[in-house]
Task: structure prediction
Amino acid sequence: MTEIFAHRGYSSLFAENTMSAFYEAEKAGADGLELDVQLTKDGELVVIHDEKVNRTTSGNGFVKDFLFKDIRKLNANKKGLKKETIPSLIEVLEWMQTNTLLCNIELKNGLLAYEGMEEKVIELIQNYGLTDRIIISSFNHYSIVHCYRLASEIETAPLFLEGLFMPWVYAQSIRAKGIHPKYSTLSDEIITRTMENEIAVRPYTVNNDADLHRLFRLNCTSVITDDPVKALRIRKQYEKRP
Ligand code: G3P
Ligand code: CA
Result:
């Protein structure tokens, strides 16, 4: 059965990459979360999509220029009523001790190198005993390989935006167990052949009904969606009846 990953949490209804969005994704019945990490000036891993805090919070400036104690003062729900703090990755991993969710941690180190990010993320995953519930992804494929070399027991997956030729061959060459492509770049045949080669396929960000139907029909490994409730409703139609 295709797994449903809530993209930045249940972000179609709750402020993206906040604990509320993660709690609500779990409550809704998602199988997993997708979240983004950046690094503060004092080396804390924080869960936020952009390099700058401007779009999603009450503040301005680069994440890398904030101390953790200062970035925590910002409101990550500037359009909503309830104040939300930017979560630390630790906060999410601690909460994951209370549930069975999977989690895709996307390292946002494509634009800024964030020296030491891979080591920090992996140390936390290992310390929290979550090596078999986490997938590390990134658009920075050097980083993916670095993660594999640091901890081959943690699944890695390259993110990409354009069509790759025989993506399973590429994934195998960098020892990744999955691929995270933009959903619109994938033909049915590429999805099927990649999975036949034992490489997981987790397209992002799949919100449209027709696209969700197609991926469930193909029994694609996972979908990454902003709306886990809609995805769950559609998936029901493909679940085998006794
Ligand atoms: O991980 C899938 C997806 O989140 C990648 O793009 O920009 O939403 O982080 P973006
Ligand atoms: Ca992401």
Notes: The mean pLDDT is 97.
